[in-house]
Specification:
Layout lengths: L2 H4 L8 H21 L2 H21 L11 H13 L5
Helix pairs in contact: 2-3
Length: 87
């Protein structure tokens, strides 16, 4: 993404700035989805993808929470369905 289109290139951001950009874009995502123009949503999505891909590129071995994987989610869903009282 060019700098004038949606901010500086994610690859050029220092680590702290990359994290701040990610926090900001995730904070504004829902509002953009619900109330932004089609162009705003496309731009937001492109920038979010750029930032997320850069984060994953820099941190390929980042810690992953078991419950956030497909296997963990399936196990959580199965356990919830097995509870007789629904709690």
């Amino acid at each position: 993404m060019a700098e004038h289109d949606g901010g500086p290139s994610a690859r050029k951001l220092e680590e702290g700035r990359l994290l701040k950009e990610l926090e900001a874009i995730h904070r504004t995502r829902h509002e953009t989805l619900l109330h932004g123009s089609d162009d705003a949503l496309v731009t937001h999505t492109q920038r979010m993808n750029e930032l997320e891909h850069e984060y994953v590129r820099r941190h390929p071995h980042r810690a992953q929470t078991a419950g956030r994987t497909r296997t963990g989610a399936r196990a959580r869903t199965s356990a919830e369905q097995e509870k007789p009282d629904g709690t």
